[in-house]
Specification:
The structure holds two protein chains of two kinds.
Chain A (H helix, E strand, L loop, with lengths): L3 H12 L3 H22 L3 H18 L10 H17 L10 H5 L7 H11 L2 H7 L2 H13 L3 H8 L3 H20 L1
Chain B lengths: L11 H9 L5 H13 L1 H14 L13 H12 L13 H20 L12 E6 L6 E7 L4 E8 L7 E7 L6 E5 L5 E5 L2 H4 L6 E7 L13 E6 L1 E2 L1
Antiparallel strand pairs in B: 1-2, 1-9, 2-3, 3-6, 4-5, 4-7, 7-8
Chain lengths: 180, 231
Amino acid sequence: MATTEEIEDLIARCALGDRAAFSRLYDRTSAKLFGVILRVLKDRASAEDALQDAFMKVWRHAGRYSANGASPMTWMITIARNTAIDHLRRIKESVDVDDAADRLVASTPTPEQSAVAAGEARRITACLDELEQDRGAAVRGAYLEGRSYADLAESFGVPLNTMRTWLRRSLQRLQECMAR
Amino acid sequence: MTTGADDIPQDDSLLAAEYVLRLLDPVEDAAFRARLAREPALAAEVSAWTTRLSGLDADVAEVAPRPAVKAGLERRLFGQPQRLPFWQRAGLWQAVSLASVAVAAFFAWQSLQPPQPVAPTPLFVSEIAAEDQSLRLLAVYDSAAGEVRLTRTAGGAAAGRVLQLWAIAGDAAPVSLGVLPEDSTAAVPLPESLRAGVAGLILAISDEPPGGSPTGAPTGAVLAVGQVSAL
């Protein structure tokens, strides 16, 4: 895996229209992004399509990634996840629409906020394990597989409103645990 | 603020988490995004949840895509697989019109200068243009003065923003040549280190806050790009 600085530098070059940098960025990051997409879209052909769409967005929106303390891999993975979820839900959108990029962090967190959040991120697995098993699995299912409330409610055999209450409560406990 | 149906306060942090997880229904999602545009505190919550949940990314195994996926991607983005940068894509007719405009601009500029002995120095020019031509500048490098002279022929900075000029030599990081004035013409010195390699230099213009990029690297969108070539 490439370093954060290297990925940041490659994204900055993509913003300047440097195709060789784009090619290197793809080589360094496509396996991770493809892994993320495959968790959402089990079908390989759709996943390949979504991977291309995600990288097209990365190329087109590279100028809007600014090094603000947020990890460039998180930026790219967020684009990949959202693109995969759009495919999964068959949301019709042209890649020219800034949707996935607009979903991204519009704010510029202070370096302090970023550091706090990054420190918290390392605790997420332990904190998920503190939740009842089902509930941790629901949070993972939503994040890693792009599952909706309806989808989760069905597989856990609970009404939709119950699912929503569960998940919100889990998220709240997760946040409290991670902030400890 | 609580919702009627459950006893969890539906605070903004939880809404932001649901937004990041794509759990909001389309109407809630649209409402949230409308707020997001105006409320920095909400955007900070989205940012915090994005980072918090990113801890789970480590659980995702890497899977190398087939090589054909990359080839297909480059074809979709850049057309036929070729190694030409996009500003060379438009073809010969554009080069011809660029050359004629450049020559006209050069002589127009020269006619304003006091007469001086004409030395057979090569002429370096570049058209720095947005893909949609919404911003276009013509650059002529004056090797005697070590200056790049620019004439803006279309577009300009957005309200409250400035245009910043960058030079990129090969694989090196962009070097700022400064913020462009509001006037349609400008002359900016080219750093010594870049002068020898002026042919092939890439010039780019980015959108920046007043006073220019605070970081020394482009922070805003890159609006226009052009390559310097000898005429």
